[in-house]
Amino acid sequence: MAHRPATGYARKAAGIVYDALNGLIWLPHGSGRVRQGLVDAMALQPGSSVLELGCGTGQVTQRLVRAGADVTSIDRSEAMLARARRRAPHAGLRIADALAFETEHRYDAVLLAFFLHDCPLIFGAPSGQWRAALFRSFPALDQNMF
What we know:
- By secondary structure, this protein is α/β, with parallel strands linked by helices.
- It has helices spanning about 10-25, 30-40, 60-65, 80-85, 120-125, 125-135, and strands spanning about 50-55, 70-75, 90-95, 110.
- The longest helix is centred in the N-terminal third of the chain and has 18 residues, at about 10-25.
């Protein structure tokens, strides 16, 4: 059965349901420590530019902005982005498909966190298409970071 995008209330509720389930899965302490640990491990300097693919409801996005990063985050779901906008109003949030996203901008870091587990369900893409999408992201990295 082919994946069909949610419509109406289901689409609007997707972000709320995602956050609620996330809270349950990560009981008793939530996922905040894991997400903050990820951002801390990136050792970002204030002003570092970060491209976040599949930002969801912005739980990592918010922490990236707090760390002083200049964040561009994309997600395929407008419902998820609506919640991300409330969490991280200073991030550059765009609706886009990670499999097709291309940019001329160079970033200090490209991040895919808490995202890949949803890809086959959401996109139904063959693995070759995923490899191509990931490799397209590498040119977006600032070559001076290596």
